[in-house]
C-alpha cells in the first residue's frame, strides 16, 4: 500500500512537471530529470496526430514512453520498461500498453541480437499481422511493432524473426489453448 502511494505521488509529480512543455524535445528533457537512471533517447516515432513514442536505453534496458500534445503543450503519459523475454535466443521483446483514455498505444518492442534477422513480424491472437520497424542505434538493433488493440496475455502473440529469403531465424509461439 505504501509503495502504491509513492508511485501515485511520483506519477503526479511527473505529470505536473511535464504539463505544458512547448515541444516534444522539451518534454523529453523534462522527463529525463525525473526518471531515475542515465537513459539515452534512441528513436522518436509519431504514432497518432498528436502523440509520439520515445524509445530509450538505460544501460542494457530498453523502454518506451508515450507523449501527447494537447492545448497546454506536450505531456508524458507514461512509459513501459521491464524485463525482456529473451527466449529463444536471437531476439528479445516485451509488450506495453501506453497512454490514457483518449490516447492508447499497444506495442511490442525489443532488441535484435541475431545479425541475420532482417524482418520481424508479430501475429496477434485475432490474426492481425504487424510488421516491425527496425532501428539502428550504434551497435544496437531495436525493433517495434504497433498493434490495433490490447493483446492479453501478451505471450499469446507469435513473434517471428526472418532472415534472408524468408528463412525463420527466431520464433516465439507459445502453444495456445483450443
Explain what the structure shows.
By secondary structure, the protein is α+β, with helices and mostly antiparallel strands. It has one domain. 16% of the residues lie in helices and 46% in strands. It contains two helices and twelve strands, in the order H-H-E-E-E-E-E-E-E-E-E-E-E-E. It has helices spanning 2-18, 24-34; strands at residues 39-48, 51-58, 61-70, 73-81, 94-99, 104-111, 119-123, 129-131, 133-137, 140-147, 158-162, 168-172. The strands form three sheets. It has a four-stranded antiparallel sheet. The longest helix is centred in the N-terminal third of the chain and has 17 residues, at 2-18. The chain starts with a helix and ends in a 6-residue tail after the last strand. Residues 3-10 have low confidence and may be disordered.
* Number of strand segments: 12
How do the helices and strands follow one another from N- to C-terminus?
Answer: HHEEEEEEEEEEEE
Which range best describes the helical content: under 10%, 10-25%, 25-40%, 40-55%, 55-70% or over 70%? 10-25%
Global structural class:
alpha+beta
Amino acid at each position: 500500500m505504501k509503495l502504491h502511494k509513492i508511485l501515485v505521488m511520483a506519477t503526479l509529480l511527473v505529470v505536473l512537471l511535464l504539463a505544458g512543455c512547448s515541444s516534444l524535445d522539451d518534454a523529453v528533457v523534462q522527463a529525463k530529470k525525473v526518471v531515475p537512471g542515465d537513459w539515452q533517447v534512441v528513436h522518436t516515432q509519431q504514432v497518432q496526430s498528436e502523440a509520439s513514442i520515445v524509445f530509450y536505453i538505460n544501460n542494457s534496458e530498453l523502454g518506451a514512453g508515450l507523449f501527447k500534445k494537447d492545448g497546454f503543450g506536450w505531456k508524458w503519459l507514461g512509459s513501459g520498461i521491464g524485463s525482456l523475454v529473451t527466449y529463444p535466443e536471437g531476439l528479445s521483446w516485451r509488450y506495453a500498453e501506453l497512454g490514457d483514455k483518449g490516447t492508447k498505444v499497444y506495442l511490442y518492442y525489443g532488441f535484435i541480437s541475431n545479425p541475420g534477422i532482417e524482418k520481424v513480424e508479430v501475429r496477434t491472437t485475432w490474426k492481425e499481422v504487424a510488421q516491425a520497424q527496425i532501428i539502428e542505434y550504434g551497435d544496437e538493433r531495436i525493433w517495434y511493432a504497433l498493434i490495433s488493440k490490447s493483446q492479453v496475455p501478451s505471450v499469446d502473440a507469435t513473434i517471428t524473426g526472418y532472415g534472408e529469403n524468408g528463412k525463420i531465424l527466431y520464433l516465439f509461439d507459445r502453444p495456445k489453448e483450443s
